[in-house]
Structures are given as structure tokens and as C-alpha cells.
Amino acid sequence: MKKILLISIISLFLLSYTFASSTGGAFSPVILNARSAGMGEAYVAISDDLGGLVYNPAGLTNINLVTLGFNHLQIPQGFTRVEFIGASYNINGTIVGAGIEAKGITNEEELLFPFQENAVSLNIARKIFPNLSLGFRGHFYSATLDTASGVGFGFDLGAIYEVNNMLKIGACWYNPISYLKWSTGTIESVGKEDLVLGTYINLDLKSFLLSLALDLSLYDKMYFYQRLHLGSELKISGTPILLRTGYNGEKNTFSLGVGLNLNNIQFDYAFLYSKDLSNQHVFGLALKF
């Protein structure tokens, strides 16, 4: 049995390189969560809210209430708009969640051809030991580009281990196998394809709570800094305000963010500054019942 399991894991690993580049062609990664955006997307070891629907499904085990959320990405100088709606529910210790991503253009006449990418994700997560959570996410893709259309699938595998109250480590394997078939007959890999390790440190400094996060991509990139994501979050005791900052090496962006946690309502905003692309604004709202 162990031999069969080992052969299966190795085969899956080799197949991922057969199908994969680091980001894929269609469904290139965009930011779908405002809190993580403010922290440079250093989120693999956190994912303790609906960000788990995007970064690490294992983190969904931290959600105890029914949660609904919405995120909007705005690129002022571009024609792309991105919306994300997600929800999660705890069923006897097993967390199930779903997310819907819609990406399109705001001015088809300017771009001269239709473009749309939609994705639906189904997530499941559970603590198999008190300190270890595992998660699985399946993706279903559909896209339209000019006169062609395509459909496909992919999946992610995630884990988070709580070393103690201060330290978490996480890992997520994005789309080890993915498949998108176009109406033209072309077949390609799709979405983010990467293996990412993350750490999360929570420091209680009495008057405020400081969180630090680091993610490291294990897939080869041109420069080492493109593998890094750095983030921090500061919560001042007695207030609902959270302040965030981060650096995203993959997108070469610096970010500032703010959050308001009012009982069961969470509002988040992030501003991303980039030398390579136009600046971006990300808004998020989550409700817990």
C-alpha cells in the first residue's frame, strides 16, 4: 500500500511539470481577497477567513460561522474588472466552501473583441489532528476570447500546521494538473501553477497585536525575489482597526491596507503600487452569521 501511494505521488508530481508553466496562459493569477492584498499575498499559512477559498483551503477550518463575502478588484488604467463571491459553512467539523470568480472587460468597444474568464471553486477542509488541517479545492473554468471559448478544470491541495499559539506553517500546491480545452482544439494548462510554503507569526505586544507572514514559491522564477511574498498586520488593542503592509515579489508590488472588524462584519481595503503595471484598488466585505 505504501509503495502504491509513493508511486502515485511521484507520478502526480511528474505530471504537474508535463502540464505546467508557473502561471499558465489563461486565468493568470489576479487578486481576489482584499486582506491578503494588503499583506503582499503572503497568505498560505493564514487563510483563516474566506481568503482560504483563494490561497489555502486548509485554512477554512478556522471558520466556525456561516460566512459570505465579496471582493472587487479595480485597475483604473486598465479595462479589466474582477469580482469574487465566496461562502463557507461548517458541517460537523468539515468546512465546505464555494467561490465564484468573474473576470471581464469594462469597455469591449475599446478592446475590439470580447473577453471573459469565469471560474467556480468547490472547497473542503478538515482538521485531521488538533494541530493539522488539510484542504482540497477543485476548479471549474470557462473562458471566452474573441470567437473562441474553452472549458477546463484544475485542483489545489493545502495543509496548515499550528506549531503553537504564535506560529503556523502552511503549504499549498496550486493546479498540479490542470486542463483547458478551447473550441479551436487547442489544449493548455490553466491558472496559477505553483508549490508555495508559508509561515505566520503572531506576536502579542500588549498594546497591539503584530502578525508577520512570509510565503516562498518553490517553482523556478527568473529572479529569487519573484518567489517571495512578505506581509504584516497590526491590530491596536481596544479598536476595530487593522493596518497592513506588504510586498509581492511575483507581481512586483508594494501594498498598504486597512481593515475594520465590527462584530460579524469585516471590511477590507488595499492599495497596490506597481512600477510595472497600473496601481490597483481592492475592496472586500464579509458577513458572518
Q: What does this entry look like structurally?
A:
This protein starts with a helix and ends with a strand. Strands 1-2-3-4-5-6-7-9-10-11-12-13-14-15 form a 14-stranded antiparallel beta barrel. Helices cover 9% and strands 56% of the residues. By secondary structure, it is mainly β. It contains three helices and 15 strands. The protein has one domain (2-288): Outer membrane protein transport protein (OMPP1/FadL/TodX) (Porin), CATH 2.40.160.60. It has helices spanning 2-19, 34-38, 108-111; strands at residues 67-74, 80-91, 94-105, 115-129, 132-145, 148-162, 167-182, 187-188, 194-204, 208-217, 228-236, 241-248, 253-262, 265-274, 280-288.
Brief descriptors of the model:
mainly beta; single chain; Porin; 289 residues; 3 helices; disordered N terminus; 14-stranded antiparallel β-barrel; globular
How would you briefly describe this protein structure?
With 289 residues, the protein is mainly β. The protein has one domain (2-288): Beta Barrel (Porin).
Count of DSSP helices?
3
CATH architecture: Beta Barrel
Helix content: under 10%
Structural class, by secondary structure, is mainly beta
How is the biggest beta sheet arranged?
14 strands, antiparallel, barrel
CATH topology: Porin
CATH homologous superfamily title: Outer membrane protein transport protein (OMPP1/FadL/TodX)
* Widest sheet: strand ordering: 1-2-3-4-5-6-7-9-10-11-12-13-14-15
What is the total tally of β strands? 15
- The figure for the number of domains is 1
Under CATH at level 1, the class stands as Mainly Beta
Strand content: over 45%
Mean pLDDT: 86
- Please provide the ordered H/E string of secondary-structure elements: HHEEEHEEEEEEEEEEEE
